[in-house]
Amino acid sequence: MSSQANEKVQPNKEKIWTRDFVLICLANFFIFLGFQMTLPTLPIFVQELGGSDQMIGLIIGIFTFSALIFRPYAGKLLESKGRQFVYMLGLAVFVFSVGSYAFIVSIGFLLMMRVVQGIGWGFSTTATSTIATDLIPPKRRGEGMGYFGLSGNLALAFGPALGLTLVGVISFTSLFLICGGLGLVAFLLSTTIRYKKVETSPDKTVTVKFDIFEKTALEPSILLFFITVTFGGIASFLPLYAAQKGIAGIELYFLVYAIFLMVSRTFAGKIYDRKGHLYVFLPGTVFIFIAMLLLAWLPNISVMLIAAGIYGLGFGSVQPALQAWAVDKAPGNRKGMANATFFSFFDLGVGLGAMTFGQLASMFGYGSIYKTAALSVLLAMILYIYLYLRAKKRQSL
Questions:
Q1: Would 4 be classed as within a structural domain?
Q2: How many domains does the chain have?
Q3: 369 in a structural domain
Q4: pLDDT in tens, 146-194
């Protein structure tokens, strides 16, 4: 009888699409939709408040640095207080901060609330990735993280285009209240998820080492940093760059990008699980490199949309593979900190990229942003080859 029960239970252990996995994907979709709607509209909002390109870079960058600073604390709390506490706290802070944008009339107050939003974003995204990691069978982690990433990609497919469309017909006040409301939906969904319990020691106490990173996740996280620099340049300045070039249809860029991002995630994770990161990272970074060169050129909308598709294929392949790599090697009680490390470098890349590119744009024009971003991708490829060859050499000893 027990053997039959085991036979029935065993296949379920390999299932990805469980009830709780679907719920975390839905919650992730709504929080990302609220976030993505603000991403291309905030630079326009800052311009309306009288801000410069440098100020736009600061507004974008300070958010990511705020998330970066608080992610290690989120990683620690995930292992000591539990997944639900960190996730719901992060979502609540996000809803409060984004909703407050509806009442902002000065850049100083916007800067302050961007810091608050960064805290909420750092907590919620570190938690949600860890929750998803808990729910995915280890042998299918690359595939599962790819599917989980689709929830954010679907939001990306609609969010920027929806935000840019709405800002043309409704006020920024209404837009930001809608974005905060989407975060509230994510919060309500989070109350229905069955979370993994915190692992305890035999004496029922929880011992959690606190530091600022998980060392086993450093290599993929550093590689991610050089990749997400490109994301900072696109999210912060591409709408303004396209407008300067007289190219309409920036909404289509984000739509095409998201479609190809989703396509790549249906197969890249499986390739990672079967063959390893070598077969995902290098092809993906080549795509990203080409996309940056096309954006630096940007003669018309056709080239912009081709760049969107190529960038989506590249980024959609590389990001989940690097995340699975970062989490795979971490001890069982350090998965939260591994995700915190991974997203800290994600934030660092976006933040430094946005701030640096704001200065570059003011001095050399928007095109210089994407030439510099291409160089960053090239550095990631060189570093990866070095790390790969070093690992192979160690294995042969």
A1: no
A2: 1
A3: yes
A4: 788 888 878 877 888 899 889 889 999 999 999 999 999 999 999 999 9
